[in-house]
Amino acid sequence: MRVLLIATNREARPSYAVPAGVAYLQTALVEAGHEARILDLCFEPDERLAPVVAEAVAGYRPGLIGISVRNIDNETYLRYRGNLGDVKLVVDTCRASSSAPIVLGGSAFSLMPAEIMRLLDVDLGVNGEGEPAIVAVADALAEGRAPDGAPGLLRRDGDTVTTAPAARVIDPGSIVAPRYFVPDERYFSTKVVGPQPTYGIQTKRGCAFRCSYCPVPSIEGKRFRLRSPKHIVAEMRQVRDHSGVTRFFITDSIFNLPRRHAVAVCEEMVAADLGVTWMAYTNPLQYDDGLTALFRRAGCETLNFGLDAGCDEMLTSLQKDFTEADIVNATACARRSGVRIVHSLLLGGPGETKDTVARTLDTMHRCPPDVLTIAFGIRVYPQTPLWESLGGDGQRADVDMLQALFYVDEALGQADCEAILTMIEQFIADHPRILVRMNFDPERLAAEVAGSSLRVSAQDRVSAQEGLLG
Question: b/e for 361-391, b at 16 or more Cβ within 10 A?
Fold first, then answer.
């Protein structure tokens, strides 16, 4: 079976992302005896999307087309941009160019698969991890039978979509490193993606934590499935040798936990002496100087602490498992090791006030990072504790989940937002050595943050359906 895999993601912030997940699917298909080619649309301009897809389909003549949906939108309040319109264009072009079945998948698709299948008018989709499913679908079609029973497979008949439990790769040891995909060199050009171009790699799948807004447990599962350190290092070596990549991004939701696994991975990296560097998302728990020194020896350049807040009140509200004291300790350990530090804040959550923001900024003053990103408004996804607390899971018939929904605490009014902006501006003035990036439009914030605590993003904030019809 000849399979065309189309990576539709073109999101550029905070940087372009190599479609490593699609590369795993390609490898799984080839290892199972199929042909598989990747069409990466990342750097294609709007006017070239349809022609490029049509040319690829006509030239390759696939028997199956897989389309990856990585992001529904850019998750940015007041600077919103949706992505499903691009995917719809790709689907329509494929259908006009070929009679091959189309199957949707990807992390964003798995968040609300039935809704996206109806919106994009596609009859097949994969909920969860795609490696076992795409192979099963290709096997079935190659043998001339229906792909019923493929892991995580959803089928649509009109408005009715059959449900299926999310597919999981039960044995992480069965994950085979990408062996055939060579990423576009523009992914690693600092002129295109900024100062830290990287190739994404996972050391585990799933997440045992339950941050209030995070959909990762619903996508990958609620427990860690740990990959072998030897397999991880072998994958890094394979990607390095095959693609010339020397910088990696460990894309686990949390790299350093379980600690014993992170230590084992780093020890394997040190022993292998690959000559590569990496960055990772991390949690402030269980840090000490020995751990950060090991990270540094293993090639770590940057640790991105997904803090979201810096005061205990808001950390509890967001269902974080660490405290302000943990932030202070972890930052100090990372600073002593010479690792670059990124702190990320997510303001406006349940219980946020100008006083909690002031305390969070005070923690940033006492634990200064090299880079501080500040987002305002929490993107609300189904199957998360925040959505459930708002009456989700079918209880909110008034809300279209394909809209860009952002939570901002209803107690925050215009005056509060103006005060918060003043505090942020003062923090920036007082800390010239910290690179501060605001992932929202400060000029529109105070005027827009008003009304309901469940807010739809401003202008460009039409629903996905309305945007596509337009």
Answer: bebbeebebebbbbbbbbbbbbebbbbeebe
Average confidence score pLDDT of the chain = 87
Please state, for a pLDDT cut of 70, what percent of the chain lies above it. Answer: 88
Cβ count within 10 A of residue 402: 20
Q: How many CB atoms lie within 10 A of CB 394?
A: 7
The CA distance from 349 to 377, in Å, is: 7
CA dihedral for 12, 13, 16, 18, sign (positive or negative): negative
The answer to whether position 440 is within a domain reads yes
- The answer on 300 and 430 residing in a single domain is yes
What's the Cα-to-Cα distance from 159 to each of 114, 120, 153, rounded to whole Å?
9, 12, 16
| Residues contacting 391, CB < 8 A, separation 6+ | none
Span 103-111, average pLDDT = 91
How many domains is the chain built from? 2
- Cα within 13 Å of Cα(319), Cβ side: 11
Query: 468 Cβ partners below 8 Å, 6+ apart?
Result: 84, 85, 88, 119
Q: Are 65 and 98 in contact (CB under 8 A)?
A: yes
Domain boundary among 113, 132, 161: 161
Output the domain CATH number for residue 59.
3.40.50.280
Q: What is the C-alpha separation between 21 and 141, in angstroms, rounded?
A: 22
pLDDT beyond 80 at 461: no
> Which of the four pLDDT bands, split at 50, 70 and 90, describes residue 419?
very high
What is the predicted pLDDT for the residue at 282? Answer: 96
Domain extent, residue 104, equals 2-161
User: CA 220 to CA 206: how far, in whole Å?
Assistant: 4
193 in a structural domain: no
* 3 state SS of 418: helix
Separation CA 164–CA 114 (nearest Å): 10
Residue 403 pLDDT exceeds 70: no
Q: Are 274 and 299 in contact (CB under 8 A)?
A: yes
Residue the block writes with tokens 């394979």: 238
Classify 264 as helix, strand or coil: helix
Residue where one domain finishes, among candidates 161, 188, 222: 161
Query: pTM for this one?
Result: 0.86
For 108, the token pair is 């964003």
CA gap 375, 373 in Å, rounded: 7
